[in-house]
Design brief:
binds adenosine-5'-triphosphate, binds the ligand Cc1cn([C@H]2C[C@H](O)[C@@H](COP(=O)(O)O)O2)c(=O)[nH]c1=O, Rossmann fold, 5 strands, alpha/beta
């Protein structure tokens, strides 16, 4: 299951509130203006069934803590559904897929953050993805306090509650961020973008990166 087609698979990664959703919309518009067929999607989620798994994963369960292994398995259950019913058919049809988080988030959050064995994650990754990898991954990188501050301000202005992951302690997010940095250093498909700058600067860099993929 390597990326079989003309459609490009681009993922957006990073911690909470760094600007993934905002910049996926920017990139989709930029590509559509060039006449390219694009869908935007997210993980966990992206299809009706996978979105029901997302709801369970993000909701705070005060009555019963979520077991970390169950969390990992649910991430990959949602991913199998998403990949097989939305991502792969779109790529096979030549559509570009822009995805808000993918397996790098599992490595960062469940591997580095929760400290689950990497071997489990790599086995599940092989089972679900075979050898499919994103063509390009944009790591939007900002100091934790910048991302968290933006996420909190967004939740306040929308009158939303923070989700179960956002209630984790600082040490958890430090491990997650370290995980993203380690992945970006190890894999050539990553482009790291300094997301602490004004949006216009971030988007100028993204446009330059997209240009290289045309
Ligand atoms: N470079 C930037 N400068 C200032 N504000 C920004 C920047 N990028 C995004 N924002 C704002 O920060 C908030 C969080 O952005 P966004 O929702 O895109 O982040 P996200 O990474 O998708 O967040 P999450 O992981 O929590 O879903 C939004 O209110 C957005 O408008
Ligand atoms: C794909 C994926 C996601 N997560 C976590 C990371 C975030 O806290 C939430 C998703 O919400 P957001 O709106 O994208 O911030 O889920 C994870 O722990 N593992 C994963 O594989």
């Amino acid at each position: 299951m390597s990326n079989p087609s003309k459609g490009r698979f681009i993922t957006f990664e990073g911690g909470e509130g760094v600007g993934k959703s905002t910049n996926i919309h920017f990139c989709a518009t930029w590509l559509r203006d060039k006449g390219i067929g694009v869908i935007t999607t997210r993980e966990p989620g992206g299809t009706p069934v996978a979105e029901t798994i997302r709801e369970k994963l993000l909701k705070a369960h005060h009555e019963e803590p979520v077991d970390p292994l169950a969390e990992l398995l649910l991430m990959f259950a949602a991913r199998a559904q998403h990949l097989n019913t939305l991502i792969l058919p779109a790529l096979e049809a030549g559509t570009w897929v822009l995805c808000d988080r993918f397996t790098d988030s599992t490595i960062a959050y469940q591997g580095y953050g929760r400290q689950l064995p990497m071997e489990h994650i790599h086995n599940l990754k092989a089972l679900v993805q075979h050898n499919l990898e994103p063509d390009r991954t944009f790591l939007l990188d900002a100091p934790l306090e910048v991302g968290m501050g933006r996420a909190r301000a967004r939740a306040d202005s929308a009158g939303e509650q923070i989700d179960r992951f956002e209630t984790e302690k600082l040490a958890f997010f430090e491990r997650v961020q370290h995980g993203f940095h380690a992945l970006a250093a190890a894999e050539e498909r990553f482009a790291t973008i300094d997301a602490s700058r004004p949006l216009t600067d971030v988007q100028q860099d993204l446009a330059l990166e997209l240009e290289k993929l045309l």
